[in-house]
Amino acid sequence: MLQLLTKLRVQRTVHVLHNSEQPASVFALLESGNKIVPLIADGLFDLLMMKMTSIYTSKKQTKIESKGPRFEIGDFCVKLGSVTMSQNFKGILVEVEYRPCVIPGSAWELLREFLQGFLGSAVSNQAPQYLQNRMNDIYQPMDTIQQYLEHFGQYRKATGVI
């Protein structure tokens, strides 16, 4: 008896991100269904991905970028990023870090008050969705990457690019 086994091809998406705050690291997030697997590697990861072009297909021009000035105001670090996708302006991202504290739940009220001081009522009283289940965890660089990916995804959906 001959049995034919077929493999169901599950679509997986790999997001590769770089952060100027960690220039020696490459961050990758593998999405498979509802599961996300994070990876932090060195710069050679980009070369590995280039070598794997026969295994995966790259979406055309899906590069999205946030660039802008960085300010230090006392214990706060504020980054204002102009978001572009395919060289088209999409919006502004504001990132604020309270440097003395690495536990989001311990600093959220202070961060919220600081943000509301210059952005007003546009700032929610609740922590961002991503942080809500991590308020008592130590904040890591991958947490920043996850939030950028979430925001970039919102920009893509707003323009119809998935």
From TrEMBL:
<keyword id="KW-0805">Transcription regulation</keyword>
<protein>
    <recommendedName>
        <fullName>Mediator of RNA polymerase II transcription subunit 20</fullName>
    </recommendedName>
</protein>
<keyword id="KW-0804">Transcription</keyword>
<dbReference type="Pfam" id="PF08612">
    <property type="entry name" value="Med20"/>
</dbReference>
<keyword id="KW-0539">Nucleus</keyword>
<dbReference type="GO" id="GO:0006357">
    <property type="term" value="P:regulation of transcription by RNA polymerase II"/>
</dbReference>
<comment type="function">
    <text>Component of the Mediator complex, a coactivator involved in the regulated transcription of nearly all RNA polymerase II-dependent genes. Mediator functions as a bridge to convey information from gene-specific regulatory proteins to the basal RNA polymerase II transcription machinery. Mediator is recruited to promoters by direct interactions with regulatory proteins and serves as a scaffold for the assembly of a functional preinitiation complex with RNA polymerase II and the general transcription factors.</text>
</comment>
<dbReference type="InterPro" id="IPR013921">
    <property type="entry name" value="Mediator_Med20"/>
</dbReference>
<dbReference type="GO" id="GO:0003713">
    <property type="term" value="F:transcription coactivator activity"/>
</dbReference>
<comment type="similarity">
    <text>Belongs to the Mediator complex subunit 20 family.</text>
</comment>
<keyword id="KW-0010">Activator</keyword>
<dbReference type="GO" id="GO:0016592">
    <property type="term" value="C:mediator complex"/>
</dbReference>
<comment type="subunit">
    <text>Component of the Mediator complex.</text>
</comment>
